[in-house]
Request: fold
Amino acid sequence: MDGKNLQLSRYTSLIHSKGTEKTLILNTLVANADLLPEHLSKNFKTQWPQFSARVLSYLYERGYLIKAEDKTYEDKFIEGLKAEYEESKDEMPGHYVIAPTLGCNFRCDYCFQPHETHEHKSIMTISDLKTVFSAIEKIESDRNAKKSPNFLLFGGEPLQRDPRLLACLEFIIEKWESLGAELNIVTNGFDLSYFEKQLNSNVISS
Reply:
């Protein structure tokens, strides 16, 4: 395969990992990702046309590189996804994520969020949540959706032992019940006993 006949897909991105010798290459259209060794990742955007035919073939098969005619295919693929969405959007439930705080009481090595973020002590107020749910209710009304929305409580850690977070959870459960929705929570579970009464609510599904 000749690099002269190829070009980078507009959906290809490179993410350099600090402290390692590899780079992540991904294509968001076809949902492929690979780790590039240092000798390929260095100056990738300018040097890839000089790669060996075997490497170019692999990058093409994975969707990172495309031929000129493939660009039209990518455009048509996106248009097809848009059309499918327009046809089915009224059947799809709304998905909402609320993070009452970015603070966290854990410092897990594998967490994708930087620990500096978890030092934040700010917590949403009831006034903040009223604004959020006013917007959600407006969105749901405009969508005229046929299914109840899905909600996720996220963070940081949304269930820390703090009376402000307890008040947030009680308000959220009340509002979500009025919307006929179920609540899912991502939590480390350390302070679950503090929220025992609220967690027994039928509105919480996981």
Notes: The chain has a mean pLDDT of 89. The CA atoms of residues 63 and 115 lie 34 Å apart. The helical segments are 38-41, 44-47, 53-61, 68-88, 115-118, 126-143, 163-178, 196-199. The chain has eight helices and eight strands.
